[in-house]
Amino acid sequence: MDDLQSEKEQIEEIRAWWGEYGKVIIAGIVITIAGLIGWNQYSASRLATELEASERFETLAGHIVDGDLDGAEFVADDLAANYADTAYAAQSKLALARLYMDQNRDQDAAEALRELLDMRADNNLQNVGRMRLASILLYQDKPQEVIDLLEGFDAPAFAAMANETRGDAYAALEDYKNAAEAYDRALADPSPTPTIDRSLVQMKLVDLPDVVVAEAGVADESTDEPLEVEDGVGAIENEPQESAGPAEAETGDEEGQ
């Protein structure tokens, strides 16, 4: 009897517990199932969007190969408008910028890359776009814009390239001190895979003009020391006056007579 009574008590406790928490558990199960269904639907939709964007990008690639700028622009705009959350939208801007440069439309290329930087794109794609934009700005002789564009740019994989580009921009601005420092940082980059032509950067560094910080060979005006110039050219010396020449001597003899 005691065992039977104990079992009844346990059953009653379970019923009471289920009455109190059963609805919460059922609700949790329903929410979990609904979440899984929603996630699966989202994943399926996302996959469909990626596939559509991939097909559009293949079309764009065909226009790029054919040099069809109008067709490439149309597809790139479609990707940017309807598939902005995919990597293909950002890649389309990179491809379009390349086509613009092939057709000597550097300003349009720069605008395409600026649009890329405004997208919610993968960091690596944005870094590539930033470096290509910097190269175009150098080509356009806009070194200060290059400095501003790369201000605070910190991507280890692109560090050497960024420092070389900074060096080129500072050299164009005739800021040779900062140019040398940027080239030095590029050469000191420890990346195992080189991203720059180190010999070329070394040549750029060596070719920087020397900065003259003080004038040499100028005597202090408060002294009587002569100014010395190499090889004696233009030297100023405090020489004693020469004695009278033969003509003056002869004139003196005649007067004495």
TL;DR of this structure?
The protein has 257 residues and is mainly α. The chain has helices spanning 2-66, 69-82, 87-102, 106-117, 123-139, 143-149, 159-172, 176-187, 198-206, 246-256.
Rg, Cα atoms, Å: 40 Å
Helix percentage range: 55-70%
**Total beta strand runs:** 0
Class from secondary-structure proportions? mainly alpha
What CATH architecture of the domain at 52-140 do you see? Alpha Horseshoe
Give unreliable regions as ranges. Answer: 212-257
Helix and strand pattern: HHHHHHHHHH
- Count of helix runs: 10
Shape: elongated
Query: Average pLDDT, to the nearest integer?
Result: 77
Main β-sheet description: none
Beta fraction: under 5%
Kindly report how far apart the N and C termini lie.
174 Å
> What is the CATH class designation of the domain at 52-140?
Mainly Alpha
Q: Determine the CATH superfamily of the domain at 52-140.
A: Tetratricopeptide repeat domain
CATH fold title of the domain at 52-140: Serine Threonine Protein Phosphatase 5, Tetratricopeptide repeat
Can you give a write-up of this model?
- The model is unreliable at 212-257 (pLDDT under 50).
- The protein has helices at 2-66, 69-82, 87-102, 106-117, 123-139, 143-149, 159-172, 176-187, 198-206, 246-256.
- By secondary structure, the protein is an all-alpha fold.
- The radius of gyration is 40 Å and the shape is elongated.
- Helix 1 (2-66) packs parallel to helix 3.
- Among the domains are: 52-140, Tetratricopeptide repeat domain (Serine Threonine Protein Phosphatase 5, Tetratricopeptide repeat, Alpha Horseshoe); 141-211, Serine Threonine Protein Phosphatase 5, Tetratricopeptide repeat, CATH 1.25.40.
